[in-house]
């Protein structure tokens, strides 16, 4: 038997691992209603036609070779224009690197930044790769509390308590996956101030920045002034192209503190060659073309958010806060009929044939006794989902 690296022994990814259990039922001919994965295309959303046509045109025009490792200049210019228009930020194209989705940007950043024994402060609960990739690099993810009673806003006092001389950065995911929280300007400014006091980087994941239901989004870097911020963003969610895997990293580097990190980031980017060439060119047209689909998507999602919020809170033994962005909701399991939230999720799957993701998969400490559901399905499907869930809960 060929042994595996010690680095991979504890790797698990809750969002996709629960699918393995669902497939077991599907092999028996049982239909499972899936509420587990943030892929709009799996439901009744579709990539806008002009973006599909841009991809087809890019292929026909023989753009099928390698792209520059940092990404096509045309795309980086359009991203810089969006940042100026939307967030008032002035980025040079050299401050932008195109990545194979936000997750690759995160992988490159953590590989460039972390040494064994370093620590990264991550929101609890958080998107799992922030924990996984940090641990893979021999460093330690340290979850900081987010307060459910305050609609999952970060607990800045807890960040202050946990930051130390091993801390390499503070991660912000806004809007948040898995809670759907939208962070206030006040909260963001306080986090920036803590980072500035301790001379650490803020890492701001803003992949859901245009999926907003009640209030506008504030980009972290727009408040940062002299504090360095690495913003991670991409096209998967807002432009309905999750499988195309195009993301980008933005370096807000006011006093040159990120020069060494940016150089390391780009060296790793060169080592992995490039992000998808034709998909990059399609994203140029996505930014230049009609944005009407965003408004239509958000209007549809807001109705679904409202339905899910109301319906979950009607089920005895469950409660939830109202998400303000992204396309997730993170209910609390009030009943104590299960040993763990994972046991709850698997019981729901086996008895009601509905698939959620257990909250502890997003954070053992701050995600336990919760589960994540998407608000992407049509209301008719969610009605069936929550009817089944209510019947399941009544048996307990």
SSE layout:
Elements: H1 14-26, E1 33-34, H2 49-60, H3 73-87, E2 96-99, H4 101-113, E3 119-124, H5 129-136, E4 140-147, E5 153-154, H6 156-162, E6 167-173, H7 185-198, E7 201-205, H8 221-224, E8 229-234, E9 247-252, H9 259-271, H10 277-288, H11 292-313, E10 318-319, E11 328-329, E12 332-333, H12 341-352, E13 354-355, E14 357-358, E15 371-374, H13 379-394
Parallel strand pairs: 1-13, 3-4, 3-6, 6-7, 7-8
Antiparallel strand pairs: 2-9, 4-5, 8-9, 10-12, 11-15, 14-15
Spatial extent as radius of gyration: 21 Å
Low-confidence stretches: none
CA-based shape: globular
CATH topology group of the largest domain:
Aspartate Aminotransferase, domain 2
Discrete helix count: 13
Structural class: alpha/beta
Characterize the largest beta sheet: strand count, sense, and whether it forms a barrel: 8 strands, mixed
What is the CATH first-level class name of the largest domain? Alpha Beta
Number of strands: 15
Query: Please, how many domains?
Result: 2
Helix content: 40-55%
Subunit organisation of the chains: single chain
Query: What is the CATH architecture annotation of the largest domain?
Result: 3-Layer(aba) Sandwich
Main-sheet strand order equals 2-9-8-7-6-3-4-5
Estimate the strand proportion. 15-25%
Order of helices and strands: HEHHEHEHEEHEHEHEEHHHEEEHEEEH
For the termini, the CA-CA separation is: 45 Å
The average pLDDT is: 96
- CATH homologous superfamily of the largest domain? Type I PLP-dependent aspartate aminotransferase-like (Major domain)
């Amino acid at each position: 038997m060929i042994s595996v690296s010690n680095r991979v022994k504890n790797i698990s990814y809750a969002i996709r691992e629960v699918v393995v259990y669902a497939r077991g039922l599907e092999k028996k001919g049982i239909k499972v209603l899936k509420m587990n994965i943030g892929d709009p295309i799996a439901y009744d959303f579709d990539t806008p036609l002009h973006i599909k046509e841009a991809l087809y045109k890019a292929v026909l025009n023989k753009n099928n070779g390698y792209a520059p490792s940092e990404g096509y200049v045309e795309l980086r210019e359009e991203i810089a224009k969006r940042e100026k228009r939307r967030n008032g930020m002035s980025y040079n194209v050299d401050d932008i690197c195109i990545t194979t989705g936000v997750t690759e940007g995160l992988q490159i950043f953590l590989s460039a930044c972390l040494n064994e024994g370093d620590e990264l402060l991550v929101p609890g609960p958080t998107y799992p790769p922030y924990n996984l990739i940090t641990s893979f690099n021999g460093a330690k993810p340290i979850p900081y509390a987010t307060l459910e009673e305050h609609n999952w806003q970060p607990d800045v006092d807890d960040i202050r308590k946990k930051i130390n001389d091993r801390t390499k950065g503070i991660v912000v995911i806004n809007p948040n996956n898995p809670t759907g929280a939208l962070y206030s300007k006040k909260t963001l400014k306080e986090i920036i101030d803590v980072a500035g006091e301790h001379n650490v980087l803020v890492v701001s994941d803003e992949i859901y920045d245009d999926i907003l239901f009640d209030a506008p989004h504030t980009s972290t870097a727009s408040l940062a002034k002299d504090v360095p911020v690495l913003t991670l963003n991409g096209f998967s969610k807002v432009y309905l192209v999750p499988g195309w895997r195009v993301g980008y990293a933005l370096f807000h580097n006011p006093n040159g503190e990120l020069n060494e990190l940016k150089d390391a980031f780009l060296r790793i980017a060169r080592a992995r060659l490039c992000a998808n060439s034709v998909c990059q060119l399609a994203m140029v047209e996505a930014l230049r073309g009609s944005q009407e689909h965003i408004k239509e998507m958000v209007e549809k999602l807001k109705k679904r958010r409202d339905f899910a919020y109301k319906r979950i809170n009607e089920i005895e033994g469950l409660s939830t806060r109202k998400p303000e962005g992204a396309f997730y909701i993170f209910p609390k399991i009030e009943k104590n009929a299960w040993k763990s939230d994972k046991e709850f999720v698997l019981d729901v799957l086996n008895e009601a044939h509905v698939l959620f993701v257990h909250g502890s998969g997003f954070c053992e400490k701050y995600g336990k006794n919760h589960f994540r559901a998407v608000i992407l399905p049509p209301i008719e499907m969610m009605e069936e989902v929550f009817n089944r869930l209510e019947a399941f809960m009544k048996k307990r």
